[in-house]
Amino acid sequence: MSASSGFALATARKRVTALRDDHRQRLAVAVLGVVVGLGLGTVSWYGLVLGGAIVALPARSFARGLAAGLGLGVLELLLFAWLLAANGALGPALTTGMVGGLSLGLGLAGPVLGSLIRGVV
Amino acid sequence: MDVDQVRRSVVAALLAGGLGATRLSAVSGLPGQFAPLSGTAWAAGRRSVPDTVESPHGAATVTYDDHGVPLVEAADDVALAYAVGYVQAADRLFQMDLLRRLIDGSLAAVVGERALESDTVNAQLDFRGAAEAGWAHLVDAPHAPAVRAYADGVNAYVDVGPRPPEFGLLGYEPQRWRPVDTLLIEKLITWGLTGTFDVVREAVARRELGTALADELYPSRFDHDVPILRNGSDGSGAGAAGGAANRSRPPAAPPEVGADLAGWLGRFEWPPGIGSNSWVVSGDYTASGKPLLANDPHLQLSVPPVWYEQQLRTDSMHVHGVAFPGVPFVVIGTNHAGAWGFTNAGTDTIGFYRYDVDGERYRYRGAWRDFETSTRTIAVADGPDHEVTVRKTVHGPLVERQGERVGVAWVGHTATETSLAVYELNHAGGLDDAMAAIRRWDAPAQNFVYADRDGRTLYYLVGRHPIRRVDGVRVPGDRIFDGSAGEGEWKGFEPFGVSSWSGFVPFEAKPHAVDPPYVATANQRIVDSSAPYLRGPYASPYRARRIYGLLDARARGGQPMDAAFVRRVQLDVRDGRAVDLVPTLVAAAALRPDLADAAATLASWDREMRPDSRGALVFVRWFHHYVAATFDPVLGPAGLDDSFRPAAWVTAHLGDDSRVFAGRDRAAVMADALATTLDELDAQGWSVLGDYSNTGAMTHPFDLSFLNYPAIPAPGSGFTVRNYDVEGPHGSSWRQVVDLADGSAVGVVPGGNSGVYLSSHYHDQLRDWVEGRYSPLMRPLEGGPDITVREGSS
């Protein structure tokens, strides 16, 4: 690691630490993460990864960060189920077996994958 | 490095690895396909069909009934067709695209190498060229604006509507719909109904088995007394047009057409057993004094169904029935003035030729000519492109495989006006209009039945039928002609162009009956005439015998017919094979003590194919094993595969002295087949018919079980009026009964009107179909429209 990148990382950590100490800022960033995750998630699965990263960053511990990512995934799946139900498609979707399971897995894995960032920063 | 740093490094590696894994080729497409909020496989579940759309062709509305059948209303045909395109795409876009690709020979581009052989054959047969010739011919026809507007409507949906899941699962986007694609769908259906290589197989069998045995297996006529037009009723035109047939035996296949080619071609035909029922009863025999009409075409029972049900209304037309997805007009149905139906005629509309060939040349009438040659590139998903050389002669395309070849002349390989005929039928104001419409009908050759509210009824054989001559003598198309000598050519036929039809049987000369008392068609022989173009037995006459039997009994009894009676006939499950064979089978089984229980079951069985019947199960599986045991020892050593097995009627009427049983005892073959059957039933755990014959056989093209229909025990067999052959599966692809007294009509499709798995109409008619219930047609719908098409610039 070069001196400049090491300095930048240290600065980022410092700012994130300050953020984690401020309850209101923590909440605001988490809400931002949910909005970004669900919003960009309708465009690309990577939006969920990004959302997972944002909701996890202000968490006070790595474990809580992962939990926040998982929570975003659950929220996203609830939204998905609601959309399906609104179009009369929830029943058929529940019978799709492996395809449905794959979607369930991707829906949870994306935000959790993003939330791993909490273990780095 | 401290512990914290190690942890961070490990987590960073996990994060990078996780993201990196999504770029690996094996999984890179998964998020795009299956992510809950963005995956293409779920698009149709997350978002409803846009309920407002603009059309440059005028306003329209769409109101769905409780089975998802659209009532489309507009002021005129063109505005209507746009909305029809939009709703068909909303409900069947993937099926439309798949069918278009299949017949075009471009299926491998999305499903991979497994479709390469089918694409190769369809490219060689150049259905695309035939459709393009057709559209060029019809570009200014009265219905052309509607065909164009339909394509615009499909594309409007492609632009704004959610994709059905299959596109996401396969990971491709549909191409835009073109008017010529509608004609490609017409070619698909026409080829499916008339593109048979029976003549090639029979010629090969004649060579491999000898003429005497081949004549026994493939007779030119089945011995029965239930032709469509009985007692010579008005079938005289056939004889007038045809003259005496050449009754000499057709020659065997030439060396360049082998068993391998003949058997291989059979893989690209629609499966055997495709057929249909229809009948029309005049007011003389009905309670109301007005006609009754019934039709149930027996086609492949696919998921989604082969038909799309729709009700269409303009200021000058009101029609309800079924169309093939990709076709804007109702093909079978009822309208404000009458009702109509079709069954396959099985008449002579295809010809085969052999040639003297020298490299890229063939000899024709004493001179060498170059083949008309082009190269088609077939794209293959996840594989290299494949090049196909398409060769044509003056007669049409060549089908080639591993050095073997046969030339094909097919009525559908020229510009046809069938789509215009269908359009005009939708508007027909009665029998005279319907006659004018079917005069245009080129292909496929069909038995047409019609009835109108004025009480008129009609049967007509429709379609173009060539007149062939060899040395000036009329001959049937029952052989592979010498194309190099110009044998058996069709005067006025221009493949991939516009034909004059001057050498074809005139419309007036074809078998027909105007205002007949009642007429039943079930793919049996049409008349007892010997006209060459009516050659071929086509289907075993079991259904015809049963329908005429029921109609005759009712007529003789003096009790007038009504719609309820007609529906009962349509749902009849008496199996004619069993009627003919069970007594002999029971006698054969009596020779074996181990078959005593089975013999008793069969003896007490009422010959009806009901799901709870043990006798029906034993018989239907016995017949399967009996066919194999009877013919495989004869066909196998000659190198002839299953596609050479003869018709059920032939099987059932082989006597003890048949050449087929040379050196064998028929009763012993029957008994052995029964023993095999009982072993099979034990092994499979089947105890009644429904355990074996159920709707679980109706499957989606994808190998994903959730896309298939649920397994509901289903009545019928491939030989009952109520038709369901689980081995196809094929059977009643649409049931329709119309009472012309008040125009009341009912119908049902085998499954659901939506092809979108996530729709509640994916298979909501399946149980009705199985249990013999119908839904009313032509009914007004309450409530506001579900989709509004506004006049605009889209």
Radius of gyration of chain B: 27 Å
Q: Provide the residue-averaged pLDDT of chain B.
A: 92
CATH class category label of the domain at 3-192 in chain B = Mainly Alpha
Beta content of chain B: 15-25%
Please provide the count of β strands of chain B.
Answer: 30
Largest interface: A-B, 41 and 35 residues
Please name the fourth-level CATH homologous superfamily of the domain at 3-192 in chain B. Answer: Penicillin Amidohydrolase, domain 1
User: What is Rg of chain A?
Assistant: 17 Å
Quickly give the structural class of chain B: alpha+beta
Low-pLDDT stretches of chain B are 233-247
- Find the count of extended strands of chain A (DSSP E, 2+ residues): 0
CATH architecture of the domain at 3-192 in chain B: Orthogonal Bundle
Order of helices and strands of chain A: HHHHHH
Distinctive features:
heterodimer; A: 121 residues; mainly alpha; 6 helices; 80% helix; B: 794 residues; alpha+beta; Penicillin Amidohydrolase, domain 1; 11-stranded mixed sheet; 8-stranded antiparallel sheet; 30 strands
Write the layout of secondary structure elements.
The complex is a heterodimer of chains A (121) and B (794).
Chain A: H1 3-21, H2 23-41, H3 45-56, H4 62-86, H5 90-93, H6 98-115
Helix pairs in contact in A: 2-3, 3-4, 3-6, 4-6
Chain B: H1 3-21, H2 30-34, H3 43-46, E1 52-55, E2 60-64, E3 70-74, H4 77-104, H5 108-111, H6 116-124, H7 127-138, H8 144-160, H9 165-170, H10 179-194, H11 198-209, H12 211-217, H13 236-242, H14 259-266, E4 275-281, E5 292-300, E6 308-314, E7 317-323, E8 332-335, E9 338-344, E10 350-354, E11 357-358, E12 361-364, E13 367-370, E14 372-378, E15 386-392, E16 398-401, E17 404-410, H15 418-427, H16 431-438, E18 446-452, E19 457-462, E20 468-470, E21 473-475, E22 480-482, E23 512-514, E24 518-521, H17 542-557, H18 563-570, H19 576-589, H20 596-604, H21 614-635, H22 648-652, H23 666-684, H24 689-692, E25 724-725, E26 730-732, E27 735-739, E28 744-748, H25 766-771, E29 775-776, E30 787-791
Helix pairs in contact in B: 4-8, 4-10, 7-10, 11-12, 11-14, 15-16, 19-20, 19-23, 20-21, 21-23
